[in-house]
From TrEMBL:
Residues 11-326 form the Enoyl reductase (ER) domain. SMART domains: PKS_ER. This is NADPH:quinone oxidoreductase family protein. GO terms for molecular function: oxidoreductase activity; zinc ion binding. Coiled coil: none annotated. InterPro entries: ADH-like_C, ADH-like_N, ER, GroES-like_sf, NAD(P)-bd_dom_sf, Quin_OxRdtase/zeta-crystal_CS, Zn-ADH-like_protein. Pfam families: ADH_N (PF08240), ADH_zinc_N (PF00107).
Length: 328
């Protein structure tokens, strides 16, 4: 097998494409022949030693992947040889094969392709948990999605629309705004032409008739947080999803009082660990929505696994719309 090995977490340049013995699965494990693996923002942070999870060295990055079960270990009864699965294990995906915990493998129904499956669990799990569980989104409410053309952003648009909400998508280019509208956003705001803070707030006000959004989905952070929170509606819920802009914002807490609003943390990974039954129910519902055509990952492009460093460069350019997926 081959894998991208991180021996020193000093950045993407330190990754090396190495040949290794193909491992044998132990108890509770499955050997997966990887067909596709998506590139997520945590996959960049983890090779820079900036992610909250710091795996022992050396490790193979790649948190999310899909493929075929080619061997199973002792005690594994829920998987079969030749079965198509997706897995979000945190590491191991940027390779040709991986040992995966069988308990984390999601069997794929007929018609669920590897590329879509590799781009599904993290973004849709995060966005469903945020909107449907943490925000308790109701039909007819208005959701503002920041960073709306990215992986979690496009998933959030689709989930909010399927739940009966109005969606305002904020993105950085006209092309990205057009993508958001093509997958269901009712209104889009180009924050390059409606700059922070004043013009951006004016655009939100216009899009909501002065009421403000009921829910704000924020995977961006940085300078966007305060003007967005100042625009939120009464009893609004501000979802803290991530900090793709790099900076962790500080907010005047008097805004929560004046707006009767809530700051709501979203940590889907820990939710999945702490509440596995609720998470399994959520993922089953998402699989049904996928089969019904209500949701479908937006794939920016697929690239050969050997071009992983080029994919990291493309992601760093902030030109990605949806998800980047590496394929073997």
């Amino acid at each position: 097998m081959h894998a991208w090995l991180c021996e020193t977490p000093t950045g993407v340049d330190a990754l090396t494409w190495t040949e290794q013995p193909t491992p044998t699965p132990g108890p509770g494990q499955a050997l997966i022949e990887i067909k596709a693996a998506s590139l997520n923002f945590p996959d960049l942070l983890i090779v820079q030693n900036k992610y909250q999870i710091k795996p022992p060295l050396p490790f193979v990055p790649g948190s999310e992947y899909a493929g075929v079960v080619v061997a199973i270990g002792e005690g594994v009864t829920q998987l079969q040889m030749g079965q198509n699965v997706a897995c979000l294990a945190g590491t191991g995906g940027f390779a040709t094969h991986v040992l995966a915990p069988a308990a984390l493998c999601m069997p794929l129904p007929e018609g669920f392709g590897h590329v879509d499956a590799a781009a599904f669990i993290m973004t849709y799990g995060t966005s469903w948990h945020a909107l449907m569980d943490r925000a308790q989104l109701k039909p007819g409410e208005t959701v503002l999605v920041l960073g709306a053309a990215g992986g979690v952003g496009t998933a959030a648009i689709q989930i909010a629309k399927a739940a009966g909400a109005k969606v305002i998508a904020a993105a950085s280019t006209d092309e990205k705004c057009a993508l958001c509208e093509s997958i269901g956003a009712d209104v889009s705001i180009n924050y390059s032409t409606h700059p922070l803070p004043g013009a951006f707030r004016d655009a939100i006000k216009a899009a909501t008739g002065g009421k403000g959004p009921d829910v704000i989905y924020d995977p961006v952070g940085g300078d966007f947080a305060e003007p967005a929170f100042r625009s939120i509606g009464w009893r609004g819920r501000y979802l803290v999803v991530g900090f793709a802009a790099g900076g962790i914002p500080t907010l005047p807490l008097n805004l929560t009082l004046l707006k009767g609003a809530s700051l709501v943390g979203v940590f889907w990974g820990d939710f999945a660990k702490r509440e596995p039954q609720a998470n399994a129910k959520m993922m089953a519902e998402l699989a049904v929505w996928y089969a019904e055509g209500k949701i479908k990952p937006v794939i920016d492009r697929t690239m050969p696994m050997a071009q992983l460093k080029d994919a990291y460069t493309h992601m760093g350019s902030r030109g990605v719309k949806g998800k980047l997926v590496m394929v073997n």
